[in-house]
């Protein structure tokens, strides 16, 4: 099955978050077709989590995007990691979502 473009996936993710009453913003626009997507979850309690693309070996054949937790720390430490990721891949997308419950609303790998 074909994979959704990054542009389409991010748009749908932002709309779903707004529908659910959550604050989610696009902080960095990447390559429309296949830019890697990173999601920063701010729990609003002084902690944050960064999620990034799961390795292809852990992806399902249904074309959906899977994510893995890359870092859980204070927001400044997470921002430092984001800056390193941007230096490595200038085409990445960055979405930030606020959720006190800590639910990133992503399909996560184990």
List key phrases describing it.
110 residues; alpha+beta; 2 helices; 5 strands; 25% helix
Characterize the structure shown.
Helix content is 25%, strand content 28%. The protein is built from two helices and five strands. The protein has helices spanning 6-19, 75-88; strands at residues 23-28, 37-42, 48-53, 67-73, 93-98. It has a five-stranded mixed sheet with strand order 1-5-2-3-4. The longest helix is centred in the N-terminal third of the chain and has 14 residues, at 6-19. The radius of gyration is 13 Å and the shape is globular. The model has no long low-confidence stretch (mean pLDDT 91).
Rough shape? Answer: globular
- Give the uncertain stretches in residue-range form: none
Count of extended strands = 5
Task: Write out the strand line-up for the largest beta sheet, numbering strands in chain order.
Answer: 1-5-2-3-4
Which range does the strand content fall in? 25-35%
Provide the helix percentage.
Answer: 25-40%
